[in-house]
Amino acid sequence: GGEGEREGGRARERGESMAENGRVSIPDHPTFELDGLIRSCLSEDLGDRGDITSLATVGDSVTASGVFVAKEGGVVAGVEVAERVFAMVDDAGVSRSWSVKDGGRVERGDVIGTIEGKARSVLKAERLALNFMQRMSGVATLTSTMRDKLFGSGAKILDTRKTVPGLRVLDKWAVLLGGGTSHRIGLYDMMMIKDNHIAAAGGIEEALRAADSYLSEQGLSVPVEVEVETLDQVDQVLTYLRANPKTFLTRVMLDNMVVRRAEGGDGYDTSLLEKSVAKIEGKLETEASGNINLDSVEAVGRTGVQFISSGALTHSVRALDISLKLKTNAA
């Protein structure tokens, strides 16, 4: 294990940059419970019979050991979740040792952790543990890559609600571990007035007034964001702000203002976004959304916008390739 330990040590050194402020905790949520999620995922896998292949072919006294290895470079996330999976399957029967913490950076070949114990328990837990780690590490890695492209711009990269149903808290945790910033968790912790709400309320001013009234009546203090797509709508928002300085409104989402140039053209046109940011003059926070990807994010960062939200971070991310090599010894 000497070589593996050295690899893990190097990975740990590289990963220190992420943990500048120590451990990044799981996002707070009023109804989410990690153990409950893991229990439900295990029961999805084990059904009403359990792991019938292992029950048939692996003796009760057989032990197994395994090594989690990064098959490519990236940012690791999901270690704490994998740890809980093994703990819930057989805490006493499987020992775990992790050489990379969540948020740590790895290169191809780095050892992330090792497990050892009852083979049946290891085989029961390994796929679920890997699924969580690979997906979360993929999200963290893409977030980190996007954040690096914004270096020097001062803009922060945000996630969205375009997450896997049931896994939102983990998807958003992975974004934080990759150095991103969390947007609202759900529909309950921030008001976001989008085009459908504006249409239903009868206009931007009406929607903002209704939001302010509701929050005052309910005694709630949550931030309000409004979505706009044109300079005229930006003007309407600023007019409301001037007339209502005590509004709960804190941020404007500048939606679909990043346009891919026509065939043969180079890159993205961000001129409308730039004009909107200039018009707002820092009176409200600004957020760009729509068409945000690895190709466009750098240009978007140069417009002076403060936040950039990207559904791509979580809705269609590629898993980081992590393998678990197992060895069993029939006793």
UniProtKB/TrEMBL annotation:
Residues annotated to bind substrate: 127, 160-162, 184, 194, 227, 255, 289-291, 310-312
One GO-annotated biological process of the protein: NAD+ biosynthetic process
Annotated segments matching region Disordered: 1-26
Record EC number: 2.4.2.19
SUPFAM superfamilies: Nicotinate/Quinolinate PRTase C-terminal domain-like (SSF51690), Nicotinate/Quinolinate PRTase N-terminal domain-like (SSF54675)
Span of domain Quinolinate phosphoribosyl transferase N-terminal: 51-137
GO cellular component, one term: cytoplasm
Enzyme type, top EC level: transferase
Stretches with biased composition (Basic and acidic residues): 1-17
InterPro entries: Aldolase_TIM, NadC, NadC/ModD, Nicotinate_pribotase-like_C, Quinolinate_PRibosylTase_N_sf, Quinolinate_PRibosylTrfase_C, Quinolinate_PRibosylTrfase_N
Quinolinate phosphoribosyl transferase C-terminal domain sequence ranges: 139-325
Pfam families, sorted: QRPTase_C, QRPTase_N
GO molecular function: nicotinate-nucleotide diphosphorylase (carboxylating) activity
Keyword entries, A-Z: Glycosyltransferase, Pyridine nucleotide biosynthesis, Transferase
Pathway of action: Cofactor biosynthesis; NAD(+) biosynthesis; nicotinate D-ribonucleotide from quinolinate: step 1/1
Family listed: Belongs to the NadC/ModD family.
Protein name: nicotinate-nucleotide diphosphorylase (carboxylating)
Lineage per the UniProt record: Eukaryota, Viridiplantae, Chlorophyta, Chloropicophyceae, Chloropicales
